[in-house]
Amino acid sequence: MAASYKVQGVVIVMVLLLIITSPPCYARLLMEKVSLADTQVMDKYRPLLLNLLPKGPVPPSAPSKRTNDSVN
């Protein structure tokens, strides 16, 4: 009888230690407060963000042969 209470006590202590020491799980992180100056800077440079993306190959800069070869 006393041995089963001792085992139950050890199990309860181990479960409590596991619960207490486990890292907390967050469903979602709360938004940090952003100052008005930060939002103004972000809005100012937001259109420039797309200029940082890689672009495709640039076609050669030459006159088109189809329109220049036509004779009227």
What does this structure look like?
The chain is mainly alpha-helical. It has one domain (2-52). It contains 3 helices and no strands. The longest helix has 20 residues, at 2-21. It is elongated.
Q: Using the CA coordinates, give the radius of gyration.
A: 34 Å
User: What about the largest sheet?
Assistant: none
Write down the overall mean pLDDT.
77
Report the sheet-strand fraction. under 5%
Helical content (DSSP H or I, runs of 4+): 40-55%
Structural class category? mainly alpha
What is the general shape? elongated
* Number of structurally distinct domains: 1
Give the N-terminus to C-terminus distance in angstroms: 112 Å
The helix count comes to 3
Oligomer description = single chain
Order of secondary-structure elements? HHH
Low-confidence stretches: none
Number of separate strands? 0
Organism: Manihot esculenta (Cassava)
Signal peptide: 1-27
Protein name: Transmembrane protein
Keywords: Signal
